[in-house]
Amino acid sequence: MRxxxxxxxxxxxxxxxxxxxxxxxxxxxxxWGVDASSDSMxxxxxxxxxxxxxxxxxxxxxxxxxxxxxSLIGDPKETRERELKPREEVQKNVAAIKExxxxxxxxxxxTPADNYDWFKDIKYLDFLREVGKNFAMxxxxxxxxxxxxxxxxxxxxxxxxxMIQGYDYWQLFKKHGTVLQIGGSDQWGNMLSGxxxxxxxxxxEVQALSMPLVINKSTxxxxxxxxxxxxxxxxxxxxxxxxxQFWINTDDTDVEDYLKIxxxxxxxxVERLMKQQKSDPAQRIAQKKLAQAVTELVHGEGxxxxxxxxxxxxxxxxxxxxxDNDIEALRKEIPSARSSANGSVIDTLVETKLCAxxxxxRTVLGNGGIYINGQRINRTSFxxxxxxxxxxxxxxxxxFKDSALVELE
Length: 409
Known about the structure:
Shape: elongated
């Protein structure tokens, strides 16, 4: 399947500056950029990153940019003014983002870039003459993200962000011959600034392509949030098991879209999975494949262990069957403690931090919120039969992440 057909089938085309989709099938050079507002990308960034992967696989040359300069200002797409971060913090964030890009695109050829390299020495008057002079206020004021912020207020710094990103495109055009910028639809106005600036400065036509923002159909909100907040690509912020569980909990109404957007599975494989899914939804075949594919894509082959850990946490597999590697993986994912065969449930809940105090532990227990190996209990002590091969899973509430591994002393 050609690139244009593949992107259209996956629903990854929203806005574009070129008329014929077939233009995408003639490989040239593109760029995709990400700011370092944190020290990790999220699953929201992953969608755009995988669009870039698809371009590379189709023969395009890639420039992948970490926004060391733009991160110092902040994209005005948010509903309120961003808090400016210290240069030192931004530097650390950029370094972390560059490392994640290297992992996501391992084995692929690309040119790394950081817009701080060309902004660090530019003088304000030169920027106004070279760039600012080429943008009419009326043009910038019509950008949707600017009009949305006028009521709540927008600083001159964030108002200038669009011109800064336009300058990036111009620099990459001159240095690398970049003729296409890709990104999320919330970046569309910024991408148009680059197209316009290059037309005025170089009398050349370059292009932009945006993908739709991913919306959770079951909730109607922007994709990428969980009960605990953002879902990060960094395993220190969202563990591989938590990451896996995020995907395996995908609603039936969303799973086909997510297979198309967040995996590299071909059309035939996705259609086969969805046929199986519709014939037996209870097996959640599509969700299992989605969780496995995305976790391994982000965390490598080692991320596959998250599926095994999840089976124990959800009591699909008895804990007594766990081997040493599985137990070690569980210890990394959840708190652990040791107890006698008739030890105190209350003390263990506090020791593993499932409850902040003994009084809270007793309250939760009395309300039926404590489980051993998936079974609700109302007693304050363990029993020898609770331990499977010397281990049990203690859980508070229905969230599997609020579990602890308890091993016999």
